[in-house]
Automatic annotation (TrEMBL):
Domain Prenyltransferase alpha-alpha toroid residue range list: 58-150
Organism from which the protein derives: Lates calcarifer (Barramundi)
GO molecular function: metal ion binding; protein farnesyltransferase activity
UniProt key word Zinc: yes
Cofactor (UniProt): Zn(2+)
The protein, known as: Farnesyltransferase, CAAX box, subunit beta
Stored PANTHER family: GERANYLGERANYL TRANSFERASE TYPE BETA SUBUNIT, PROTEIN FARNESYLTRANSFERASE SUBUNIT BETA
This protein's UniProt keywords: Metal-binding, Prenyltransferase, Repeat, Transferase, Zinc
Similarity comment: family membership: Belongs to the protein prenyltransferase subunit beta family.
Keyword Repeat included in the entry's annotation: yes
GO cellular component: protein farnesyltransferase complex
Amino acid sequence: MDGVPTPLRCFSECHSAEMFVDDGVETVTSVEQKKVECSIEEVISVYKQIHSLPQPTLLREQHYQYLKKGLRHLSDAYECLDASRPWLCFWILHSLELLEEPIPSAVASEAQQEVFAGGPGQHAHLAPTYAAVNALCIIGTEEAYNVIDRYSPGLT
C-alpha cells in the first residue's frame, strides 16, 4: 500500500458486523464477551472524541520487534507467569501471525523447545498443553509437528 497505514479493523465502518452474536442463547461467556466489546467500543468512542487523527497508527515494526524479543526472553515482570509460558508463547506467535510477520527459524526452534516447559515443579495438564499444541501448529514446521505426540498406542 506504499506507506499508507492499514486501517485498524476496529475503526472500519463494517466493524459492527464482526461483533459477537449469541443467536438468542445467552450464556455467562456470551454476557462477558458483550461486556468486553462494549468496553472496547467506549474506549474507541473516547479516542475518536479527543483525537484529531481518524485512527491510531499501528507501529508494526515496533510490535514485531517486541513480540520477537518476547519469544526469546521475557522480562522479570513476567516471572510470576512462568507456569503460563505455553500461553504466552501461543499469544505471541498468534500476534505475529495476525501481523503477517515471519517467525525467524532460530526463534521458532527455540520457542518449540520451551513451549512445554511450564513453570518449575509444575505438572502438565490440558490447558497449557492445548496452548503449546496451538503454538507449535502456528510455527508449522516439520520439526514443530514432530514435538507433538500425535500417535497414541492403541488408537487407530
